[in-house]
Amino acid sequence: MASGKTPTRRQREVIERYRLNSGNWLIRKNPPGEMHLIHRLTGRKRILFYSEKGGRKLEKTGV
Question: Measured between alpha carbons, how far is 60 from 49 in angstroms, rounded to an integer?
């Protein structure tokens, strides 16, 4: 399982906008407009898409 880092406050806000518990997710990669997450317990990977202005976009899972 790849290691991840704990999210910053701004990253936690994006994760919670998707109605996820930010305490359960670690940041694997953070390219502009995307956030690659790993679940702390299960290892499930997830990609969240967001705009820099705070809007919510489509979500892609299973990557």
Answer: 8
* E strand or H helix that includes residue 13: helix 9-17
Q: Which of 27, 30, 29 is nearest to 38 (CA)?
A: 27
pLDDT tens-digit map of 5-30: 999 999 999 999 999 999 999 999 99
Contacting residues for 17 by C-beta, under 8 A, at least 6 apart: 50, 56
Q: For position 38, what pLDDT does the model report?
A: 97
For residue 30 the two structure tokens come to 């953070």
